[in-house]
Amino acid sequence: MELRSKVARRVLLAVENSAKESRFWKRVEEILSRPRSRRVEVNIGKIARLTKPGDRVVVPGKVLGGGNIKHNVTIAALSFSSAALNKLKAAGCTIMRIDEFTKIEPKGSGVKIIV
């Protein structure tokens, strides 16, 4: 599997290491390994509908700025659009890349995957 982006390669490597011990991260690895044309893109509005305050979420792809979010969630994703970053920061959300999140949640228990 060849990923063009250095960041994407780094993220996939971190997820592969975590996938050895956790079915959650194995599923995230499967989604991230898809071809670029099938990569996941999720709008903020969808995240807002599927989460409650304090939830932890992984988006194995890009978070886009469509919609609004009013509550605080922790979101880990491969990348974020600039509009999404602005809206998430305004809502007080915690934002990080997936490779950073694998260190915090090595088992992935209690974390939602949104695709």
Index terms:
Ribosomal Protein L15, Chain: K, domain 2; single chain; alpha/beta
Question: Outline of this structure?
Answer:
The chain is of the alpha/beta class. It has helices at about 5-20, 25-30, 45-50, 80-90, 100-105; strands spanning about 40-45, 55-65, 75-80, 95, 110-115.
Fraction in helix: 40-55%
SSE-based structural type: alpha/beta
Radius of gyration: 13 Å
Put simply, the count of helices is 5
Portion of residues in beta strands equals 15-25%
- CATH architecture descriptor text: Ribosomal Protein L15, Chain: K, domain 2
- Report the order of strands and helices: HHEHEEHEHE
Number of discrete domains? 1
Low-confidence stretches: none
Instruction: Kindly state the number of beta strands.
Output: 5
Largest sheet: 5 strands, parallel
CATH level 1 class label: Alpha Beta
CATH names the topology as: Ribosomal Protein L15, Chain: K, domain 2
The N- to C-terminal Cα distance equals: 21 Å
Q: Can you give the mean pLDDT?
A: 91
Can you tell me the overall shape? Answer: globular
Structure description:
- With 115 residues, the protein is an alpha/beta fold.
- It has one domain (6-113): Ribosomal Protein L15, Chain: K, domain 2, CATH 3.100.10.10.
- The chain has five helices and five strands.
- The chain has helices at residues 6-19, 23-32, 44-50, 82-90, 98-104, and strands at 40-43, 56-64, 74-80, 94-97, 111-113.
- Strands 1, 2, 3, 4 and 5 form a five-stranded parallel β-sheet that branches.
- Helix 3 (44-50) links the parallel strand 1 and strand 2.
- Helix 1 packs antiparallel against helix 2 (23-32) and helix 1 runs parallel beside helix 5 (98-104).
- It is globular and about 35 Å long.
- The relative contact order is 0.22.
